[in-house]
Amino acid sequence: MTAMTTESAWDAVEGFKLPRGYRVEITDGKIIMTPQGMAQWKVILKAAPQIEAQLAGRGDILSDVMVDFPSTLYGYAPDLAVVAPGAEHNSRGRYEWHDLEAVLEVVAKSNQDNDFVKKLKLYAECGIPTYVVIDPAEAVCTVHRAPQRSGRYEDSEQVPFGEDLRLQLEGREIVIRTDGFPRDPS
After folding, report:
1. At residue 5, does pLDDT exceed 50?
2. Cα(137)–Cα(5) distance, rounded to whole angstroms?
3. Rounded distance, CA 100 to CA 78, Å?
4. Which of 76, 40, 108 is nearest to 62 (CA)?
5. Do 148 and 124 contact (CB within 8 A), yes or no?
6. With 0-12 CB in 10 A as exposed, 13-18 as middle and 19+ as buried, what is 20?
7. Closest Cα to residue 111, out of 1, 10, 30, 13?
């Protein structure tokens, strides 16, 4: 497979009608489509309004929206992302990686390597301050902080479902109640 030569990984799917109900991402230059699971969808539905209410106009929230990363091999649309106050869309009408204060991904069993390894590495390299992996199968959120350009985070903390998940953003804190997050027994 040859590497894409476009400025954004998302250019590869420009003009295609993508199917509803599927998550589309680009990893290592490959277009990957996976169905969204019930637990994943419900976690997003429970977390998003909590984040939105606490942002109170100081930033924005995205869910499954294309973000431009500094590589034509990676195009991610995070499950949830907190956009910094004052961030503006680029010429393609999208936010870029440096606009994100936090990314929350709800892991699906079929996509664990992507969320726990590939995304963690890219998000750290890009300097995204907080990366949270929410795992309904294990009923735990893993919060990664202090990104290193080497592709790792210096600080990680596990927050079991039922405890409050705290996101330290620039000059403010978002608290997400996880007691209503569904567990995925599969």
Report:
1. no
2. 38
3. 10
4. 76
5. yes
6. exposed
7. 30
Please name the amino acid found at residue 105: E
Q: How many residues does the chain have?
A: 186
CB 63 within 8 A of CB 48: yes
- DSSP label at residue 127: T
Predicted TM-score (pTM) of the model is 0.80
DSSP state of 149: T
- For residues 119 and 65, give the distance between their C-alpha atoms in angstroms, rounded to a whole number: 16
Q: What is the pLDDT of residues 127-170, one digit of tens each?
A: 999 999 999 999 999 999 999 999 999 999 999 999 999 999 99
Query: In whole angstroms, what is the distance from residue 74 CA to residue 114 CA?
Result: 11
Q: Mapped to the 3 state alphabet, what secondary structure does 159-181 carry?
A: EECCCEEEEEECCEEEEEECCCC
Q: Name beta bridge partners: 160.
A: 140
